[in-house]
């Protein structure tokens, strides 16, 4: 039996069309929940210092919802590294993600400390990618995302 490989997206990659455009081959997508972390828009954009991208921050009382992609093979995740600026801008680590199928170990990108700046906002186009994950998010989480203040 082949081992399955997963990637948990909590930012703009929740948009499955974006993932396909980026060439990521996946066989399924599931609702995923990462407990003990919260979503933050504190990762400074390398191309625009006033813009932020999504990140996760340790917070034992919170959770992050997102899309868990079942990859066709273990090499697919390497296709994401250039888009995430890994390993310079984001690190790729393995975390346990809760799903309806139980806990699944998955690759997750986490912003490197040198790229974190508080007080930034995402651009509207970027937040719209997150909102594309609506079908795999709880209504409460989706509603909270719609309330995120953007740069316009």
UniProtKB/TrEMBL annotation:
Keyword Lyase among record annotations: yes
First and last residue of the signal peptide: none
Gene3D superfamilies: Gamma-glutamyl cyclotransferase-like
InterPro entries for the chain: AIG2-like_dom, G-Glutamylcylcotransferase, GGCT-like, GGCT-like_sf
Pfam families recorded: GGACT
Stored CDD domains: GGCT_like (cd06661)
Keywords annotated in UniProt: Lyase
Ranges of residues in domain Gamma-glutamylcyclotransferase AIG2-like: 7-113
Protein known as: Gamma-glutamylcyclotransferase
């Amino acid at each position: 039996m082949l081992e399955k490989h997963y990637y948990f997206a909590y930012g703009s990659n929740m948009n499955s069309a974006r993932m396909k455009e980026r060439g990521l081959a996946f066989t399924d997508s599931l609702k995923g929940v990462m407990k003990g972390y919260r979503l933050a828009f504190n990762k400074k954009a390398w191309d625009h210092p006033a813009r932020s991208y999504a990140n996760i921050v340790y917070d034992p009382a919170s959770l992050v919802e997102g899309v868990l992609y079942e990859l066709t093979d273990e090499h697919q995740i390497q296709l994401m590294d250039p888009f995430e600026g890994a390993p310079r801008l984001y690190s790729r680590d393995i975390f346990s993600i809760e799903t309806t199928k139980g806990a699944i170990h998955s690759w997750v990108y986490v912003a490197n400390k040198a790229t974190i700046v508080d007080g930034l906002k995402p651009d509207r186009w970027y937040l719209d990618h997150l909102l594309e994950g609506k079908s795999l998010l709880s209504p409460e989480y989706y509603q909270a995302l719609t309330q995120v203040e953007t740069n316009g």
